Amino acid sequence: MKTNMSKYSLVAIDLDDTLLNGDLSLSRRSIETINKVKNTGVNVTLATGRMFCSAKKYAQQLGIDIPLITYQGALVKSPCERELVLHRAVPLELARQVIRDIKRYGDFHINVYIDDKLYAEKMTDAGVRYQKISQVKVNTVGDLLKFLKEPPTKVLVSATEEEVDYLLNELKPVYRDDLHVTKSKPYFLEFSHPKANKGDALAVLADRLGVERDRIIAIGDGYNDVEMFEYAGLSIAVGNARDEIKKLADYVTLPNEQDGVAKALEDIILA
C-alpha cells in the first residue's frame, strides 16, 4: 500500500448521474482511479438513494469493503452484509399517512421498501422506468395500505418533474418535523426517517471509522446530496448537476459522462 499524502481519509460518492454513466455502468477509468485511491489508504464508499441490493453490485465491482450508505442514509451496511451500522425506518403509521396523502392528489406510482425488497400496488409506466434504473424487481401487491404491516425503509413517489415539485411543496410542510422529504431525481420524491439523509449517515460512518469531517470528500449531483455536502470537509459537484447544487459545492468537476469523479480524485488525492 502506498503512503497517503492526501489530507483526506474518506470519500463518499453518489451513484446515479455522478459516478455512473448514462447507461448505468462504471467506466474503466472510474474503477481504476477508485482502486488507486483505496491503495493510498483512503476509504471509499458509496452514498446513494438506491436500495442496498442495487448498490451492492457496484461496490463489488469497485472492491469497496466498508459500509455503504443506501436509501438516502436510512440503511448503512457493509457489502458483505455482516455489519449493519444503522437502519432508520419510517414509522408505520407515518408511512401509511404519507400514502393516504399522496393518493388524495392523484393516482401516482408509489413504492415502499421492506427488508430490501421493493413493493408497489401495480405495475405502471413509472414502475417500469424505476425497475429499469434500479435493476430491481417491483413486486406488485395491490392496496398498499392493506399490504403495509411493518415500517418501510422509505416511501417513494414517481411522477413528472412538475408533479413531484407540486407534491413536494404541498407535503414537505406537512411532514417537516416528522420525516425527511427530498427529491432524489427530478421525478422521484422520497419520504424517509427524519435522520435518514446522507449527511447524518456519513457522520455515523465517519465516527465509526474515526475520521474527522474535515478529512471527508463528498461527491454528488442532486438535491439528496445537499446534507452530505454540508457535512463533508470538501464537497464536489459533477458538471451535469443542477446549477443550484453546483452553487452549494466547494468544487465543480467534469460531468459524469466525462468521468468527473475520476478527474476530481486524480486532481485532489492522486496528484
Description:
This protein has 271 residues and is of the alpha/beta class. It has 2 domains: 10-87 and 196-270, Rossmann fold (3-Layer(aba) Sandwich); 92-192, Hypothetical Protein, Haloacid Dehalogenase-like Hydrolase, Chain: A, domain 2 (2-Layer Sandwich). It is 38% helix and 21% strand. It contains 11 helices and 14 strands. It has helices at residues 15-19, 28-39, 52-62, 92-105, 125-134, 144-147, 161-175, 198-209, 226-231, 243-246, 260-270; strands at residues 10-13, 43-46, 68-70, 75-77, 84-87, 109-114, 117-120, 138-140, 155-158, 180-185, 188-192, 216-220, 234-237, 251-252. The strands form 3 sheets. A 6-stranded mixed sheet has the order 8-7-6-9-11-10, with helices on both faces. α10 links the parallel β13 and β14. α2 packs parallel to α11. The longest helix is centred in the middle third of the chain and has 15 residues, at 161-175. The protein is globular, with a radius of gyration of 18 Å.
Walk across the major sheet and give the strand order. Answer: 8-7-6-9-11-10
What integer value in Å does the Rg equal? 18 Å
Structural class by secondary-structure content:
alpha/beta
- At CATH level 3, the topology of the largest domain is Rossmann fold
End-to-end distance, in Å?
17 Å
CATH superfamily of the largest domain: HAD superfamily/HAD-like
User: What is the number of helical segments per DSSP (H or I, 4+ residues)?
Assistant: 11
| CATH top level label of the largest domain | Alpha Beta
Residue share in helix: 25-40%
Low-confidence stretches: none
- According to DSSP, the number of beta strands is 14
Total discrete domains: 2
Overall pLDDT confidence: 94
Tell me what portion of residues adopts beta-strand conformation. 15-25%
> What form results from the Cα inertia axes?
globular
Assign the CATH architecture of the largest domain: 3-Layer(aba) Sandwich
Give a quick account of the main beta sheet: strands, pairing sense, barrel closure: 6 strands, mixed
N to C succession of SSEs: EHHEHEEEHEEHEHEHEEHEHEHEH
